[in-house]
Amino acid sequence: MIEPPLDQVADLIDEVLPPLYAGSRRGPLIAADLDSAGCLIGAAPSHTDPAEVARNVLGCRMSLTEAATVTEALARAGMLRDPNSRASAIIVLRPDGSREQTVYPDAANVRLGSRIVAIPAGQVRIVGPVPDDIEPERAP
Amino acid sequence: MTAEKVPDWRRLHELMLAAGFTEAGRGRGHVRLGWPGSPESRGTLVLCTDPTAPEYLNMLDAALDELAAARDRGAKARDVLEQLRTEGIIT
Question: Which residues of B touch A6 (CB under 8 A)?
């Protein structure tokens, strides 16, 4: 499971913000917006151009030119989701509310107890709630 | 919610940890706190730890707003549960 590096993203944003925002600490808020929009590494592949979405999200807080500059810095640092990734993922929701995410490099058939769940490349399946004693495993 | 006297972020941080919030992350000028009982990586509440930042007061106010909203939701949930208990639907 890849956790978006929110704190590193926040710090980087504060570093690369245009001079107009010198000394700003809005990085963590913007990082949270980018995370919610699914732009950061580790996010489910729900849109094809994470950089474009990031530019739009950032553009709500600064000019589009500035947003493009910040997006480029994030992309260079490898913090945006790879648009070419074909990774698929299964998210298992537990009765206690916890969640477990397993990422597969491509399409996968996952055995979940007695069920086989097919996950096309680049998609995410959310399964649950399932009993605690059932573990997802890749089907043979 | 606008604080009449804006609390020092350290005091707010201390009270939240004592109440069961967990530290989910820390960067330059901020700390992220996870809600008690929730996964640490999601829905965290951000405290600005740099009093010289232009957003300092706004971010503290925003954190207080989030706490107040959670308090109001909790109060409404409690009212519903108490009513169900009064009607004997739950024990």
Answer: 25, 32, 41, 44
